[in-house]
Amino acid sequence: MTGGQLRRRYGRVFDQIDIDGDGIIFRGDFEQMARSLAHTFDLPASSPKAHAILDHYRRTWAVLCEDLGIEETGQIGRDDFEAAMTSLAAQDSFLQHAREVAAAEFALADQDDDGQLAQDEFVRLIEAFGPSREEARASFSHLDRDDDGQIGREEYVVAWREYISSEDENAPGSWLFGSPG
User: What is the model's pLDDT at position 1?
Assistant: First the structure.
């Protein structure tokens, strides 16, 4: 995989965050995404899981702003986002943060708190980011590494790590939001 293909993944994430499609993201987009995810799973804003995802998404915004040397009240365009992600994905501290964010997303979707996402839970989560139901189902089949019909927490966390940092286009995580092509 070339760096350009990895940057395309970052562009896909940017598009998911850029809710109004204006080519600019700001803190409010991250907060809205967190609220939307909680709403997808019928969680009130006051729930611990909703609070956790909101806190993690706010921290992600802060990390991006810090990397770019801008104030948290600023905004980020696609090219700057992709540049920041390229820089951050090479840093162990950011990969640890991404792991925590992925774990919070997983917890939000794990409605019965059994440490596993059934296909319907996983599909709802991925659809909330924008991919179609068909893309989410394809993603599920690639990420279910042990073929047990569920996505475990570690499978999901590893998929996110691969999505943002692996140049291996055959890695299961490259399918996180559907076909990597």
Answer: 39
